[in-house]
Amino acid sequence: MSRTPFCWVRRDWMPVPLPGLILEWRRDEQGWIALVAVIEQTPSRVVIEWFRPQNLRPVPASPSLGSRYG
Asked: 6-44: per-residue pLDDT in tens?
């Protein structure tokens, strides 16, 4: 997966991916799983859930060109 902790989460029953933040990676008997904070649209709430990598897509990170603050 990507080094950025931000991702798109695809659920089998959702027509569009939802934004998420990867909190932790673990390995289990079936492979890797990620603990992800997902922002659900309706109702607006944050849900923390385990996902397999095939349900995640990294958000491309732009290279940092320095700080605006100095």
From this structure: 999 998 887 889 999 999 999 999 999 999 999 887 788
Measure the CA–CA gap between 59 and 61, rounded to whole angstroms.
Answer: 6
User: DSSP class of residue 19?
Assistant: E
Measured from the Cβ of residue 46, the count of other Cβ atoms closer than 10 Å reads 10
Q: pTM for the complete prediction? A: 0.76
DSSP E strands: which ranges in 1-70?
A: 6-9, 18-28, 31-40, 45-51, 56-58
The tokens of 32 are what? 């890797």
Rounded to whole angstroms, how far apart are CA atoms 21 and 34?
A: 10
> Of 48, 41, 43, 44, whose CA–CA distance to 21 is shortest?
48
- The three-class DSSP label of residue 25 is strand
